[in-house]
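Sample pair:
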Amino acid sequence: MKIECNLELDENLARTLSESVAPCEIVRGPNRSLTPDIEIAFGQPEIAIIDKLDGLRWIHLTSAGYTRYDTPEFRATAARRGLALTNSSSVYASPCAEHLFAFMLAQSRRLPEALRTRVAGGTPEWNRLRGLSTSLAGEQVVMLGLGAIALRLIELLAPFQMRIVGLRRKRIGNEPVPVITPPELPAALATAGHVINILPDNAGSRNFVDAKFFNSMKRGAVFYNIGRGATVVQEALADALRRGQLAAAWLDVTDPEPLPPGHPLLSAPNCFITPHTGGGHRNEAETLVRHFLDNFYRYQDGLPFLGRVM
């Protein structure tokens, strides 16, 4: 069996991967020396290359997102060929949830302003800053999407006893928080102090968060985005911040990335942007390889995949 891998690995990790899948052969990429007998692709294979690999049976992505594969044409091809597609969303769930949690704490404790303020105790400015600081306890939250990141964030927020609802197109029945569907969203937005966007980028979610969405939100609420920048109309977000409809926005993703010089979000004093680092963590490549190997052993044993999206 041959496994194509175009993930950048150091020498030690490459050796670990090769030894762990032996006697299967690792073919290093990107898209180098590929032959029709490649059975597994590990990384980010190009769709044009996939079409030429007649023996390919399983693709394991090193990302949580799979937008370019989520098309009717590719889904039809995958179904016809019996081709499985898995992602690495579980690898990024905890780092992304912790990043969001840090955003929420920084906002409630007014850390950006507090860190750049130097005043004596008891002064009006000191009292003002203390008075602006709040607690997350009991606050109301709307989560757009209830995937792996949201589920981990719900666990982190549990001690605060926040009132959390999650948006899904339809209820599954095993959710850890109450679920709302799209028709119920405006009413939920009108009372929530925190709105967290964890939506993926697909045809149904693109520009989902628009001017109408922001106008439905409770005035003075906070918006967070660690999903995909393309799900938000950036101009509408900038306008909502400018008008005071939102108290603040905390973004790990934008559209485009990075934002061009002069973009209104860059100069908004109540907009805080990290450069799509939310999922990053030490030894990330090692975590990705370990997740792939978990699925590889399942593949060999005929067990269900972890993180299968097709």
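The domain at 2-87+282-301 is CATH 3.40.50.720 (Rossmann fold).
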